[in-house]
TrEMBL record:
The chain crosses the membrane at residues 12-35, 55-72, 84-102, 108-129, 141-164, 170-192, 249-273, 285-310, 317-340, 346-369, 389-409, 415-433. It is a multi-pass membrane protein. GO terms for cellular component: plasma membrane. It comes from Dictyobacter arantiisoli. GO terms for molecular function: transmembrane transporter activity. Belongs to the major facilitator superfamily. Sugar transporter (TC 2.A.1.1) family. PROSITE patterns: MFS (PS50850), SUGAR_TRANSPORT_1 (PS00216), SUGAR_TRANSPORT_2 (PS00217). Coiled coil: none annotated. This is MFS transporter.
Amino acid sequence: MEQANPRPQKQLSVYFITCVAALGGLLFGYDTGVISGAQLFLVQTFSLNSQQQELAVSCVLVGAIIGAVITGKINDAIGRKKTLLGLGILFTIGAILTAIAPNFVLFLLFRLIVGIGIGSASSVVPTYISEMSPFQIRGKLVTFYQLAVTIGIALSYGVDLYFAHLGMGWPPMFASAAIPGVLLTVGILMSLETPRWYASKGRWDDARGVLERIQGADPDFELNEIHSSLSIDQQKGRLADLFGPGLRWALLVGVGLAVLQQFVGVNTVIYYAPTIFQSVGVSSASSAILATSVVGIVNVLATIVALFLVDKAGRRILLIAGCIGMIIGLGLLGAVFAIGPTHASLVTLIALMIYIIAFAISMGPVFWLMSAEIFPTKVRAAGASTCSFSNWVANFLVSVTFLTLINGLGSAGTFWLYGIIGVLTLVFCITLVPETKGKTLEQIEGYWMNNRHWVPSTQHTPLSTGHGD
Ligand code: BGC
């Protein structure tokens, strides 16, 4: 067992730690967004038919599903920090290999590998940040992760456009992801393992050592909280525990939010915005791409607003307001298509703005935040990875059914269907999602274990013994 280092070590800002880990989110956003601009060039290089094009887009989602499944166990066994280090290396190598792929089959294989990284990052990054954060600002810090996802998407549009203008085609578009990959690898080497992972392994001295190195943390209070929570349940965390009484509600909330986050149709807007604009009369491709970039930038800006509100207004208010906004946006979008879309580009832009702003202040950040804060330490990695897995499966299902739905129900019917799911999401949030603002991770655990009632922090057994074991 590693001993705590007796030498006083430099303190680290929790913002530095958060920004480094959030690079995993940036890579998630970049690597999912990059394909939209690269596709045109891939079609030329590999002479792709439409099925192969769909494969080029969806294989990253399949990789992400695999990545989300395998991460829970790895994350628990080797720790959050080493998992992130592995991811940094995987993203870097994946970016370079994709850029030099000599044929389409290898291109798909390398995209699958990058997809595994994305799925894995979407489970480990929120968990890592949430376990590092002082509870008062946990919402804000985990929202940095979603902010990084949106920046990654916007950045990928810009980079695609840049290399397209230079006439350099798709290879540099994919290779550029190596830069954040290297930054993540180097940054995480300078960062720390989480106190809660150490504690779950019985390494209390290391847990205290980390808390003493995080600027502004309260080591005694936090260790007390972690200790009482871990002593409630001495068992080793197992996946089956997620289905036990109490925690099955947490699982329902986590998986419900995961699926609904995708079923409100966000990625049809993210991936298909240029097509939507063209079908309402924005004639030139470049104006459609420009309008899409506006959607990307508004997504980033609205997420910044969420960052400041999530610990003040709370998660529930954001979810409820956001669902109402998404329902209005989708209703309007459906109406544009029902009435006859030609020359309704301004109304379409307004409807898409309302929708994306509403998503970016609610389901975007709050789902990922909750996936990382509602499960107890022993099963947090398993819980987060189950949520992330459900989210990627739902993402895949929406992506492969969108065009079929448009053909079957028409555009208006499709957006109204997403709007109806928005109504269900609203009901789900009002009735089942607890307000976790200002609660420690251990209080949240107490909520599930006490029949969904809050237990004040002081009622936890105080830490009376030493930490070493
Ligand atoms: C979702 C992604 C989506 C992105 C858009 C994320 O929270 O999980 O599927 O593309 O938000 O900003």
